[in-house]
Specification:
The complex is a heterotrimer.
Chain A (H helix, E strand, L loop, with lengths): L6 E4 L3 H11 L3 E4 L5 H6 L7 E4 L9 E3 L3 E5 L4 H5 L4 H4 L1 H6 L6 H4 L4 H7 L5 H9 L2 E5 L4 E5 H4 E3 L2 E2 L6 E8 L6 E6 L9 E7 L3 E7 L6 E6 L4 H13 L10 H20 L1
Parallel strand pairs in A: 1-3, 2-3
Antiparallel strand pairs in A: 4-5, 5-10, 6-7, 6-10, 8-9, 11-12, 12-13, 13-14
Chain B lengths: L1 H7 L21 H5 L16 E7 L5 E7 L1 H5 L3 E6 H7 L20 E2 L5 E7 L2 H8 L3 E6 L6 H4 L15 E9 L2 H7 L2 E9 L11 E7 L4 E6 L6 H9 L7 E4 L15 H14 L3 E4 L2 H7 L5 E10 L5 E11 L10 H4 L13 E9 L14 H19 L3 H8 L8 E2 L5 E2 L4 H11 L2 H13 L3 E15 L10 H7 L7 E7 L5 E5 L8 H13 L6 E4 L20 H28 L6 E4 L2 E4 L6 E3 H10 L13 E6 L16 E15 L6 E11 L6 H20 L31 E4 L17 H18 L10 H8 L23 E9 L3 H8 L2 H7 L3 E8 L2 E10 L2 E15 L3 E10 L2 E13 L5 E12 L1 H5 L4 H20 L9 H10 L7
Parallel strand pairs in B: 1-12, 10-11, 14-15, 20-21, 27-28
Antiparallel strand pairs in B: 1-5, 2-4, 2-6, 3-5, 7-15, 8-13, 9-10, 9-12, 13-14, 16-17, 18-26, 19-20, 19-25, 22-23, 23-24, 26-27, 29-35, 30-31, 31-32, 32-33, 33-34, 34-35
Helix pairs in contact in B: 8-9, 12-13, 12-21, 17-18, 20-21, 26-27
Chain C lengths: L1 E3 L5 E7 L2 E7 L5 H8 L18 E4 L2 E4 L12 E3 L13 H8 L9 H14 L5 H8 L10 H23 L1
Parallel strand pairs in C: 2-6
Antiparallel strand pairs in C: 2-3, 4-5, 4-6
Helix pairs in contact in C: 2-5
The chains are: A alpha+beta, B alpha+beta, C alpha+beta.
Chain lengths: 271, 1002, 172
């Protein structure tokens, strides 16, 4: 269980990363915290010709508070964001979800953007990005672009990133005066979610985002729901997510969790 | 005594004249282990030039090997050899099989693979990474066969047969009858019956297997270092397989081993493989198993299908049992199987006084990893059936389950008690143990908690279990699988020779050696206590070595660390050896001190006259005399340099003509009860309180005893709630990573409340019994009984996966909204992937038809496609290198078209294989005009994925299928509409995609 | 920018438990293998090589790190702490190690190095942890022998001892 052979490039500037990606295209992989990629390399599931280590580029290591958003660089580790003093105030939903990402020993190395790039449908950070309606900042040697969360996740482990693009960072909106709730069910503490739900109170009603069920984390907005309308809406949403069976849970069980946890969380944020 | 044992487990006692045995002294093993100075097999250096092996394994559960092309691998720089079954077969013989049948059992696939993970080739290179590079270049052509994974399915008519020598996959079928069970059933007012499927799991040590082997061609002798744990009866199996006499197989163990729990018994086929590789290459070869190999193909406990019926009196007294056990040993019956089935044979009545028993034991082979030793070894399977049945009897008769347990217990005055099936239960007082546990564990208060919880509408239940824990196996029990006539022919097998050596060196310091091969149990510490007591020394004065070297050390076939034999047998043998030396030293000292030998006492580092304590001599002086002045020893004393004792208990007799077998020497008693609560939303089981009462005879080291109990409890909790080696119906292995095979962590394991009582065994030198395996037997069923009580359901299958519990307790699901999306049909355990979809394509059906069947189109929309060969008009082959997301792999694909109905419909059928696994799929595509000049394309598919990707990507398999197949048709639609080529050809892309879905938690 | 070619070995310099050391590594060499087989620091163990079991956990530049999910090339120039650096002297154990020995918080000892590194790192930053916090921290480690509770008890006792000895030092 040893990785295949590859070249290793320790980049010191973003330009070096973009050049590497431009030259090697799909044969290059960005190595940040490595908490997903290295396991895949050890199992020989991935066989890049070049790994580009971006963790010694100071400009990617920043968390920037803007007036209505927080911009998190590609080199920001999950532990860095957890330790950011403004987190609970600026990004309360992330403050709830982030401790559920892996374990302390993986959050210390793993990055926020790496989790998004990996695009596991059960992962917490993609769910938070979708629930908050954040944006992904992509950059290649040719161009820069911003992609909305709902357009970024293209399928299970698939994203809108092109082979020559670096996820330079993400932008998460700071939403004042709202309420947030997050809950996930996993087989064990720290496992990938069987179902994860994030609810936010919106100006017009409520949004529920669900991970672990569909191929991508999926958000749904409703106007203020009353009485049995909540159950009906959640039931329809649960079916639309297209749950499937796997070795850890059944589709029915997942739909049950969406209905029950969704109801609880909506109740919490609309309380 | 009980309280003292519990208390001293949590404190460190300081020396005085109390015996050292019974105290929780700090372990001598720990300083090195805590500072990174352990000496595990991969921590030790190897001879310069040692080569490293990796093993190419079967992705198929059952297939013929058509060809193996190893040329590219052999040519890779750094590769010394690539060995297939053919080459291994040339230098070895088949492993012996434990039943009389014309079957062979090789450590590597020969002509056919029979389980996912079976070795297919051994690649030996300068380092592991290069060996793995080479393994990827090996091209194996397989012809798949139908697989069978279920023990009852395997013996059903028409099931695929694994070995011609096991017709109908049946390796053994024996019926036993004790007392008059037919009459008991006929006369009994009640009959209760239960059907059990006990799952596959494993105790999965954190250190994997390791082997370093070399071969001296001049003497045709092998030297092997392996973290093998015994039993050393396996040494004979290895030597025979390597075609050398036992004295030309020097087997050594490293000083430290990172856990085993039985599992490292299963390293022995790899000892044969790696030793053979050393012989072929003429160089030392090292192999360290990796975790994926370990989970897929090391060894597993047996899964078992059991039907158990009881004849029961109106008051709950069980009059007779009728067992029908179908034991699944996986693809090969490897030594010492079918031992898992027969280890408990004397104990089929558990803790109960039941006079009449009927047993049918069948051993079957299936397309799964071969089984072997695992903590509990047969106990979990037996007690799950028996103790679930006891609960069912109680419910059926309207009795309290604890009342039924107590009504059936063996009387306290009945020991030693001979069970119906032949075990001689040494000692115990089960009634007293239960009474103490009920009081100390506060059962009444727990019942009040249950009442209160239920009053609030919560799901709360209480479970009970009473278990007899056998230890120190009779090496002859396995011959119960043979008929009495076969046994007569083969000659008797029985006993369990334990060995211990006590040596004194020229300065009088004491060394102890045993062949107990610990994997963390602290044997060195306990032996230092035992021997220090005999010699009146302190444990720190005694140096203990537990490494084994079969060329130099005392050992027997019973040596090793299994069947909880250390405290009862090995430590006792060390005591006997030390006492023999002490007896001689006493005679020497008596002559020096001018007293009678009977007046001699060993205390505080001196050999002293009891009458006159001032008349004494330093222990070291007496101890050294044999070295320096043997001539001055009294004539009758004998040497005191070294004493090796072999000890085997007379109670371990061979099976009788009546098939009764005393399968174990000692029998501890466990009584557990627990309260659990099940969350109404998640249906996760939370253990509120777990009480476990143990009587393991005399306790030698309370801290270690509690450590064994806690560790066994945690593994049992894993087996009950999380762990399963899961297989798909086609034999694909589904839990190939530690993110899929779920071990409990700190957040899942509570502290059990442990209580003790001590009824010494009259059969062992120290009065001790085994204790290491008991909770693996008692805890799974105790938790299941509690969950059954909480949910009010009769059938409970482990592990207690929340989604499975949901199926038991939840009624009909709310239907989807009338205008909404329907749920996909449930697939249960079927791992085939099915789906359907549609796409709108510009162009007429005729135009789309042409595109669909055109190799040029296919080639242009397959990313990374080097070539598409058109074999016939309807048969294509392609070589592809694919990269989707971070995942890349090379595949060879083969696609055929059937049932062509131009331009309306076609069926595509094909497969693809690569290093990451294989896939096969069939899809039906139909084309219809959409009424506006375009085509409505609809498709359905049915795909199967196997190999590495199924093992490590199972969590995300389904979603990926839909994504990829949907993409293929979307790409086709775009191409038809003039869009750019993207997406991927379904079969190939599916494989590549799924391969990337490693569902790890990192 | 440094680029290491796949087919060559490259010098890697690190500080290991305070001592400057160097060894050669291919780009694909894992930190776990580099520590064990190049630098001879075999106290760090390898249990799964996919980041789940935690046996290989070390501290790199103050960060808990799965050495099996890290390349040797990534730590060039970094400070690495491993289990070999925990004891104050070769014949003496530190407070945490002693607590492990007292509580029988290890049996086979194979997973122990990683657990000690997590605790040593955590207790230095969190002097008064709760049991729940210790359990959360150690949920990133697998142990098959102990059932975990002795480990939790040892950690809590060591934390209390460390806190009181720190207090004594600052009082003095």
């Amino acid at each position: 269980m040893k990785p295949p052979a590859f070249d290793y490039l320790r980049a010191e500037t973003v330009g070096e990363v973009l050049d590497g990606l431009a030259q090697q295209g799909g044969d290059a992989r960005v190595l940040a915290g490595g908490q997903s990629l290295m396991a895949m390399l050890n199992m020989r599931l991935a066989k890049p010709k070049l790994l580009i280590d971006i963790m010694r580029i100071p400009e990617l290591r920043k968390i920037e508070r803007k007036t209505d958003a927080v911009v998190i660089g590609a080199g920001v580790r999950q532990a860095d964001l957890l330790a950011w003093p403004d987190l609970a105030e600026a990004l309360p939903l992330v403050a709830l979800a982030l401790p559920c990402v892996g374990h302390m020993q993986t959050r210390s190395r793993g990055t926020i953007c790496g989790s998004l790039a990996h695009a596991d449908p059960s992962a917490e950070m993609p769910l938070a990005l979708v629930a908050l309606g954040g944006e992904v900042l992509l950059r290649s040697a040719r161009r820069r672009r911003r992609v909305a969360a709902k357009d970024f996740f293209a399928g299970m482990m698939l994203t809108a990133r092109s082979d020559d693009e670096l996820i330079e960072g993400i932008s998460l909106p700071v939403i004042n005066g709202s309420r947030f709730a997050f809950r996930e069910v996993a087989r064990r503490h720290g496992d990938f979610a069987i179902v994860a739900c994030a609810a936010t109170k919106t100006p017009s009603g409520v949004r529920l985002a669900v991970g672990g069920v569909a191929d991508v984390p999926t958000a749904r907005d409703w106007p203020r729901l009353e009485g049995s309308a909540v159950d009906d809406a959640l039931n329809a949403f649960a079916y639309e997510l297209g749950a499937r069976d796997d070795v850890h849970a059944t589709a029915r069980y997942r739909r049950d969790l969406v209905r029950m946890i969704g109801r609880d969380l909506i109740g919490e944020v609309l309380r | 005594m009980v309280q003292a044992a519990v208390q001293s487990a949590n404190s460190v006692d300081q020396g005085d004249d109390k015996p050292w045995v019974g105290r929780s002294i700090e372990r001598v093993e720990d300083a090195a282990l805590l500072s990174g100075r352990g000496r595990f097999i991969d921590d030790l250096g190897v001879q310069p030039g040692t080569l490293h092996a990796t093993i190419l394994r079967s992705p198929h559960a059952h297939a013929d090997i058509v060809s193996i092309d190893v040329e590219a691998a052999r040519r890779l720089p750094g590769v010394a050899a690539v060995l297939t079954g053919e080459q291994i077969k040339a230098v070895t013989t088949s492993l012996v099989v434990g039943v009389k049948a014309p079957v062979e059992c090789w450590p590597i696939a020969v002509e056919r693979v029979r389980y996912v993970g079976e070795p297919v080739a051994v690649i030996v290179a300068t380092d592991r990474a290069r060996a793995e590079d080479a393994a990827e270049l090996i091209n194996v052509a397989y012809r798949p066969r139908a697989a069978t994974v279920d023990p009852l399915g395997a013996i059903a008519p028409g099931a695929p047969v694994l070995h011609d020598g096991f017709p109908g996959n049946l390796a053994s079928d024996r019926a036993f009858r004790y007392g008059d069970p037919e009459k008991a059933f006929a006369d009994a007012p009640h009959r209760f019956s239960i059907d059990i499927r006990y799952p596959r799991n494993s105790c999965t040590p954190i250190e994997t297997y390791g082997v370093v082997a070399s071969h001296d061609a001049g003497e045709d002798a092998f030297e092997v270092l392996a973290n093998f744990q015994g039993p050393f009866s396996i040494h004979t199996v290895i030597a025979r397989a390597l075609k050398v006499p036992g004295n030309r197989l020097r087997l050594r163990t490293p000083p430290d081993s990172g856990g085993s729990f039985g599992v490292k018994q299963g390293v022995f086929p790899y000892i044969v493989l790696i030793a053979a590789a050393a012989r072929v290459t003429g160089r030392p070869v090292k192999w360290i198993e990796d975790r994926l190999e370990h989970l897929t193909a090391s060894v597993s406990a047996t899964n078992r299908a059991t039907t158990l019926a009881a004849a029961v009196a109106a008051d709950g007294k069980i009059l007779a049992l009728d067992w029908d056990q179908v034991e699944d040993c996986g693809a090969h019956l490897r030594a010492p199987e079918p031992a898992t089935l027969y280890r408990m044979h004397g104990n089929m009545t558990g803790a109960y006084d039941i006079g009449h028993v009927r047993i049918r034991n069948r051993v079957v082979v299936t397309n799964k990893t071969p089984t072997g030793l695992n903590r509990g070894f047969g106990g979990p399977q037996v007690y799950f059936a028996l103790e679930r049945l006891v609960q069912r009897i109680a419910i059926g008769l309207g009795l309290d389950p604890l009342d039924v347990i107590e009504r059936n217990l063996i009387e306290a005055g009945a020991f030693p008690y001979r069970t119906a099936t032949g075990a001689l239960l040494d000692s115990g007082n089960y009634q007293d143990a239960i009474a103490r546990a009920v009081e100390q564990g506060r059962l009444a208060e727990l019942k009040a908690r249950r009442d209160a919880a239920r009053a609030e509408g919560r799901l709360y239940g209480i479970g009970f279990t009473a278990v007899v824990e056998p230890s120190v196996s009779n090496m002859g029990y396995i011959t119960t699988v043979l008929t009495a006539a076969e046994r007569r022919k083969a000659g008797p097998k029985n006993g369990a020779q334990a060995t211990a050596t006590v040596g004194l060196d020229p300065v009088g310091s004491v060394t102890v050696h045993v062949a107990s091969v610990p994997q963390g149990q602290g044997h060195r510490t306990v032996l230092s206590q035992v021997v220090a007591d005999v010699f009146g020394l302190e444990p720190k004065d005694i140096r203990v070595n537990t490494e084994i070297d079969t060329a130099k050390d005392a050992w027997s076939i019973a040596s090793g660390n299994y069947a909880s034999r250390f405290a009862a047998a090995v430590a006792g043998t060390a005591k006997i050896a030390a006492e023999r030396v002490a007896g001689r030293l006493a005679r020497i000292a008596a002559s020096q001190l001018n007293v009678e030998a009977a007046d001699i006492v060993f205390a505080r580092g001196f050999v002293t006259s009891k009458q006159n304590p001032e008349n004494r001599i330093a222990f070291s002086r007496v101890a050294a005399l044999s070295h320096w002045s043997p001539g001055s020893l009294p004539d009758d004393a004998g040497q005191t340099i070294r004493e090796t004792v072999f000890w085997t208990p007379p109670e371990l007799t061979p099976p009788g003509e009546d098939d009764r077998i005393n399968s174990s020497l000692c029998h501890g008693f466990i009584f557990d009860f627990c309260g659990v609560e099940i969350d109404r939303i998640t249906l996760q089981t939370r253990i509120d309180r777990y009480v476990t009462m143990h009587d393991c005879g005399t306790i030698l080291h309370p801290g270690m005893v509690n450590g064994q109990i806690r560790g066994g409890f945690a593994q049992a909790l894993g087996a009950a709630l999380y762990e399963e080696y899961a297989y798909a119906e086609d034999g694909s292995f589904l839990t190939g990573t530690l993110a899929d095979y779920l071990l409990p962590t700190t957040t899942e394991v509570p502290e059990p409340e442990i209580f003790h009582m001590e009824t010494p065994s009259p059969f062992t030198p120290l009065g001790a019994k085994g204790v290491g395996e008991g909770n693996c037997m008692s805890t799974p069923v105790c938790l299941a009984n509690a969950v059954a009580d909480a949910l009010g359901v009769a059938d409970i299958t482990l592990p207690l996966v929340p989604a499975r519990l949901a199926e038991l307790v939840r009624g009909a699901e709310p239907p989807p909204p009338a205008d909404g999306v329907a749920a996909a049909p449930a697939r249960e355990s079927d791992r085939r992937l099915r789906g359907e979809g549609q796409a709108s394509v510009r162009g007429t059906p005729e135009q789309v038809w042409v595109m669909l069947l055109d190799p040029a189109t296919l080639q242009s929309i397959i990313p990374g496609c080097q070539r598409v060969d058109k074999i016939t008009e309807t048969h294509f082959r392609a070589d592809v290198t694919l990269g989707i997301g971070p995942v890349t792999g090379r595949y060879r694909a083969d696609v055929e078209l059937f049932d062509l109905d131009p331009p309306r419909a076609v069926t595509l059928r094909g497969g693809a294989t690569g290093a990451l696994g294989f896939g096969s799929a069939e899809g039906r595509v139909t084309l219809a005009p959409d009424g506006s000049g375009g085509t409505k394309l609809t498709y359905s598919y049915d795909a199967a994925i196997g190999g590495k990707i199924a093992s490590i990507g199972g969590r995300l398999l389904d979603g990926a299928t839909r994504v990829i197949i949907g993409q293929f048709f979307a790409a086709l639609a775009r191409r038809a509409g003039g869009g750019g080529a993207s997406g991927g050809f379904s079969l190939l892309a599916l494989l590549a995609k799924v391969a990337g879905l490693f569902g790890g938690r990192r | 920018m440094s680029r290491f070619k796949s087919d060559a070995r490259h010098p890697i310099h690190v500080s290991l438990n305070g001592e400057p050391v160097a060894g050669e590594a291919e780009p694909r060499t894992l930190l776990s293998d580099f520590l064990r087989h190049r630098l001879g620091a075999t106290g760090t163990h390898v249990g799964c090589e996919h980041g789940v079991c935690g046996a290989c956990t070390v501290v790199v530049d103050g960060m808990l790190t799965r050495s099996c999910l890290t390349l040797a090339a990534q730590v060039d120039g970094c400070e690495i702490r491993t289990v070999e650096g925990l004891a104050p002297a070769a014949d003496r154990l530190g407070v945490l190690q002693q607590a492990f020995r007292r509580h029988h918080a290890l049996q086979c000892g194979f997973c122990t190095a990683g657990i000690l590194m997590s605790l040593d790192h955590y207790l230095a930053r969190n002097p008064a942890p709760t049991e729940a916090e210790i359990r959360d921290l150690l949920s990133g480690h697998l142990c098959r022998c102990t059932g975990y509770t002795p480990i939790i008890q040892a950690a809590l006792e060591a934390a209390a001892q460390l806190a009181s000895s720190k207090k004594e030092t600052s009082d003095a």
